[in-house]
Write a structure and sequence with these properties.
By secondary structure, this protein is α/β, with parallel strands linked by helices. The protein has 21 helices and eight strands.
C-alpha cells in the first residue's frame, strides 16, 4: 500500500476527473485515498439548528458507528462532539483528523462559528448543497431531524461537497459585493424619492437638460439648504458662480446664468408644499450621502481583496472596471479551479438549455430558460458583455458587430467570451493581449517589441483604474499577482512601467 505522503501530493493539485461523478470534492477523495480503507474514514453528518444540532457517526462504507444524537450549538457542545469523535477515532483506528469529515447543509450564520471552530481543530469540514441533500431524502412527504441526518450522510458518501474553513477571499469579497448590491438598490430608491421632491421644488432641475448634472456634487449642495426655484432665482449670479466653481463645475459663470434663467422660468409650488418638500428632501439627501459614502468604502474593500487574486488580470480588459470584476468573481469563485467553460456559463445562466433524448438519431433541442442559475452572476456578466460590446478592445468590438449583424444575442455571447478570457488570464497570470500579440509568446524580436509597445501603451489606463481608488501601490506591490507581472515584464522586455 503506498504511503499517505506520496498519495496526497497529486490529489490536491491538478488531479484530472476520470469518473462519472463530476461534482466530487477532491479533498474528500484525498481523505479516502490517504486512509486506504473506507472503514478508516469517519463521517460526521450534522443537521444544523439554532440551539441543538443532530449528528451521527458512520464509516466510509455507510455503516452506522453511532446513531443520531444531539449536540448543543455552544462551546460545551463542540467540546462534547470533539470528545466523542476522538474516542471513536481511537476505537476505529482512524489515524488522522483529516480523515474525519464533518459536514452539513449550507450553513446559516448561526452555525458558521461552530464549523469554523471544528476546522481550526484540524478536521475536514465541508458544506453540502441543500437540493442534493433533498434528493437523498427517503421521503419527500415527511421529514424529521433523524431522517435529515441520514440524507446528509448519504450525500457525504457521494463526496458531493465543498470544502469550508480557513480564509476564503472569494467568500469575503462575495459578502462585500452583495452588501454593495443591496445598498445600490436602497440608493436607487432614495434617488427616486429625491426626484419626486425636486420636481415640486424646482421642476426640471434633475432632468438631462438642466444646467447642472443630476446628483453631481454641485446639485447636491444646491439641494441641501432651503432648495427651491424661488430661492435659486433670488441668489446673486456671483454667489452661484463661486459655489459652482468650488465644486469643480467648468464654465461656472455660464452655468450660473443658465441656472438662474431656468429657475425663473420654473412653475413654483405653493408655500406649504415647498416647506414640506424642503424638509423631506433634506432628510433624503442626508440618507443618500450616507449610502454613497458606504458604497465608496465597499468599493475600496472589494478592490483590496481583488488585487490579491489572479482574477485581477481581467481588469486589464478595456471596458471592465474593478467594481464590476470584483462583483463577478465574488460569485464565480476561483476561475482556475473551473475545468470547462460550459460549467461557469451554465452557473451564470448564459448558456442555452439543451435537451436530447430518443437515441442518437433524435436531434437535440436547444433553447429555453434555465431554471437553476446564479441570477446575481447573470446580471453582472451581462453587464460585462455589454461593456465589451460598447467599450471593449477593437477585436472584441468587431466580433460583437459581426454577431449583431448575424442576429445573435450580443450581450450573452460577449458575456460568455468575457468569462472565457478572464479564466485564461487567471490561469496564465498575464494581462489581456490582442490575438496578433498572443501567438508566438517566445517568437521573434519584432513580436517581442510589439508586445512591449502594447504593454507600455495600455499601462497608463490600467494604472488609472487602480489610482482612482487610491490602491495603485497596493495593486502593483511585488507580492500581488499584478505586481509580480509588472516586475517580470519590465525585466523581460526592458521597459519601464512607472507609478
Amino acid at each position: 500500500m503506498p504511503s499517505t505522503n506520496v498519495a496526497a501530493a497529486p490529489i490536491f493539485g491538478a488531479m484530472k476527473r476520470k469518473n462519472i461523478f463530476r461534482n466530487e470534492s477532491q479533498k474528500l477523495d484525498a481523505a479516502f485515498i490517504e486512509a486506504g480503507l473506507p472503514e478508516r474514514v469517519l463521517l460526521v453528518p450534522l443537521d444544523f439548528a439554532k440551539i441543538t444540532h443532530y449528528a451521527c457517526f458512520c464509516d466510509g462504507r455507510g455503516t452506522y458507528i453511532r446513531k443520531a444524537f444531539t449536540v448543543k450549538n455552544t462551546k460545551e457542545g463542540i467540546d462534547y462532539l470533539v470528545d466523542q469523535i476522538e474516542r471513536t477515532r481511537a476505537a476505529r483506528s482512524v489515524k488522522s483528523k483529516r480523515h474525519v469529515i464533518i459536514g452539513g447543509e449550507d450553513s446559516a450564520s448561526y452555525t458558521r462559528n461552530f464549523m469554523d471552530r471544528l476546522f481550526e481543530l484540524g478536521y475536514l469540514t465541508v458544506r453540502l448543497d441543500s437540493k442534493e441533500v433533498h434528493r437523498q431524502a427517503e421521503s419527500v412527504d415527511s421529514s424529521t431531524d433523524k431522517t435529515a441526518v441520514r440524507a446528509i450522510a448519504k450525500t457525504l458518501l457521494n463526496r458531493d461537497a465543498l470544502h469550508t474553513g480557513g480564509t476564503d477571499l472569494y467568500a469575503q469579497m462575495r459578502g462585500l459585493t452583495r452588501q454593495r448590491r443591496r445598498i445600490v438598490h436602497l440608493s436607487t430608491a432614495v434617488k427616486n424619492r429625491i426626484h419626486t421632491h425636486a420636481d415640486r421644488l424646482f421642476p426640471g432641475f434633475l432632468s438631462k437638460e438642466s444646467a447642472v448634472s443630476a446628483f453631481s456634487q454641485a446639485s447636491l449642495e444646491l439641494m441641501a439648504n432651503k432648495f427651491s426655484a424661488v430661492t435659486l432665482a433670488r441668489k446673486s449670479e456671483k454667489t452661484l458662480t463661486r459655489m459652482l466653481a468650488r465644486q469643480g463645475v467648468r464654465g461656472a459663470s455660464e452655468v450660473a446664468a443658465k441656472l438662474k434663467e431656468q429657475a425663473s422660468n420654473a412653475i413654483c409650488a405653493d408655500d406649504a408644499s415647498v416647506r414640506l418638500s424642503s424638509q423631506l428632501i433634506e432628510s433624503e439627501l442626508s440618507l443618500f450621502q450616507t449610502l454613497q459614502a458606504n458604497l465608496n468604502d465597499l468599493n475600496i474593500e472589494c478592490a483590496r481583496i481583488l488585487l490579491r487574486l489572479p482574477e485581477a488580470f481581467a481588469v486589464s480588459i478595456k471596458g471592465i472596471g474593478i467594481t464590476l470584476a470584483a462583483s463577478i468573481f465574488a460569485e464565480t469563485g476561483s476561475l482556475r479551479q473551473i475545468q470547462r467553460s460550459d460549467q461557469i456559463n451554465a452557473y451564470a445562466g448564459i448558456a442555452p438549455k439543451v435537451k436530447q433524448t430518443g437515441g442518437p438519431e433524435s436531434p437535440a433541442r436547444i433553447g429555453g430558460k434555465r431554471r437553476q442559475f446564479n441570477r446575481i452572476l447573470k446580471d453582472y456578466t451581462l453587464q460585462a458583455g455589454n461593456h465589451l460590446y460598447l467599450h471593449g478592445p477593437t477585436e472584441l468590438l468587431h466580433d460583437a458587430a459581426r454577431r449583431k449583424l448575424a442576429g445573435k444575442a450580443v450581450d450573452t455571447a460577449m458575456a460568455r467570451r468575457f468569462l472565457r478570457i478572464a479564466r485564461a488570464l487567471a490561469k496564465s497570470h498575464c494581462i489581456y493581449l490582442p490575438s496578433d500579440l498572443r501567438a508566438g509568446q517566445h517568437g521573434t524580436d519584432a513580436e517581442s517589441q510589439a508586445r512591449a509597445q502594447y504593454i507600455v501603451q495600455i499601462w497608463p489606463d490600467l494604472l488609472l483604474k487602480w489610482k482612482r481608488l487610491g490602491l495603485h501601490e497596493e495593486a502593483f506591490a511585488p507580492e500581488t499577482p499584478l505586481g509580480d507581472w509588472r516586475i517580470i515584464v519590465q525585466e523581460i522586455y526592458e521597459i519601464d512601467l512607472p507609478f
